[in-house]
Amino acid sequence: MDENPTLTIIGRVESRLTEPGLAPKQGSEGAPDAWLVLRDDVRDGLANLAPGDEIIVLTWLHRADRAVLHVHPRDDPSRPLTGVFSTRSADRPNPIGLHRVRVLAVDGVRVHVDGLEAVHGTPILDLKPTLSATER
After folding, report:
1. Nearest Cα residue to 27 out of 131, 114, 124
2. Under 8 Å between Cβ of 17 and 10
3. 134 pLDDT higher than 60
4. According to DSSP H, which parts of 65-124 are helical?
5. Which of 11, 77, 101, 122 is the most buried (most CB within 10 A)?
6. What is the per-residue pLDDT across 11-59, written as a single tens digit (0 to 9) for each?
7. Sign of CA dihedral 47, 51, 55, 61
8. Cα-based angle 10, 92, 103 (whole degrees, multiple of 5)
9. pLDDT of 65-92, one tens digit each?
10. Confidence at residue 110, expressed as pLDDT on a 0 to 100 scale
11. Which domains does the chain have, with CATH numbers?
12. How far, in Å, CA of 36 to CA of 15, rounded?
């Protein structure tokens, strides 16, 4: 087994959000629409992606603190310190973001999505369709 896997960034987020501390904690909490701008060499992977599709966007939360192992959930100091693996905190050893969004439009290598809480410039690792219970 490869002890040092390599991830490939397939694109970046274009968003009006620029500061992680000002971004909503979850997309459903008022996050703006955003664009997923993919590299041209992965264009064929967008075949059959269409407006209305729900997808999971996997990102690399590049501005996260990878040394953090305990956080106050939702940055609320009144809540007890909790291990990051029991939270959705961006700060963690491998800051992989998981975002459920709906596709609004596909324009070449650009995918317009609703309610994405990732900040401008966030690297995109992958896109995956959501599955219903019968598709799993």
Report:
1. 114
2. no
3. no
4. none
5. 122
6. 999 999 887 665 655 656 567 899 999 999 999 999 999 999 999 999 9
7. positive
8. 40
9. 889 899 888 778 899 999 999 988 888 8
10. 98
11. 11-129 (2.40.30.70)
12. 9
Measured CA to CA, the distance from residue 54 to residue 18 in angstroms comes to: 24
pLDDT of the residue at 108? 97
Instruction: Confirm if 112 and 83 have CB atoms less than 8 A apart.
Output: no
With contact defined as beta carbons under 8 Å apart, do 104 and 112 qualify?
Answer: yes
45-51: list long-range contacts, CB under 8 Å, 24+ apart.
45/10, 45/127, 46/106, 46/109, 46/111, 49/103, 49/106, 49/111, 49/127, 50/103, 50/106, 51/103, 51/104, 51/105, 51/106
Place of tokens 């439009």: 105
- Strand positions, DSSP E, 1-135: 11-14, 34-38, 54-60, 70-71, 82-83, 96-107, 110-113, 123-129
Could you tell me the two tokens for 62?
Answer: 């590049």
